Request: fold
Amino acid sequence: MPVPDYGVWVATPISFHAERRDEDRQSPHIHLKFKDGPSGSREFKAAVNVKSRDRESRLVYWVNQEFNKPTLTDRLKELDFGFQPIESDDSQFGDLGLDYLRGELLVLDEGAILSHDIDGPNNDIIDKLSPILQSSIDNQATIYLFGSQFSGQDGIHDIHMNQGSLPRFDNGVKQDGGIILFSPTTEQWETVFLAFASQKTPTDDRSGKPLRNSKSLADRLE
Reply:
């Protein structure tokens, strides 16, 4: 079924905590706190997966520090702070839905597969994401969080590819999660896109479910 309460949250990041393996071995997250703009007073939370519960527990990530897609970023600049639902192509923001496989956002085969938390520097997903998030906080960047709004409307999750998964998970076309950042000091756009290495491609153009001949991202990239 489609991803429920899908949309983009336009926000200002203020702090984060990355759960290490001694805190949660099964389903750790990076918990990012944010508010609705520089003058916002209420805090919200984004839960960013950094490990899968599947036997193949690694993630795939794509980072582009010079993202250049004006057809998307020009639209993002027009959005107000806060959560904006993206329901369909017929809605006000319907054409903003992300799609890793169809949206020309990334080169699929350039993804890097990383574990959650291993000894040593700059060799796991936390090591890669933490400096990006800290820089966005230090530079008072605007962050665009794509994913599924919590039922309590106090945060967002599913900030990763949302297609090519087993039937027990939600699959959708143009409903992928992700992080897009805009730095006011450099006027530069940056993207962080994530997927579980167990997710499969290609996917059905209508449902986002994996096709019969699809392969996992791990098999494709290794």
About this structure: The mean pLDDT is 93. The longest helix spans residues 125-138. The radius of gyration is 16 Å.
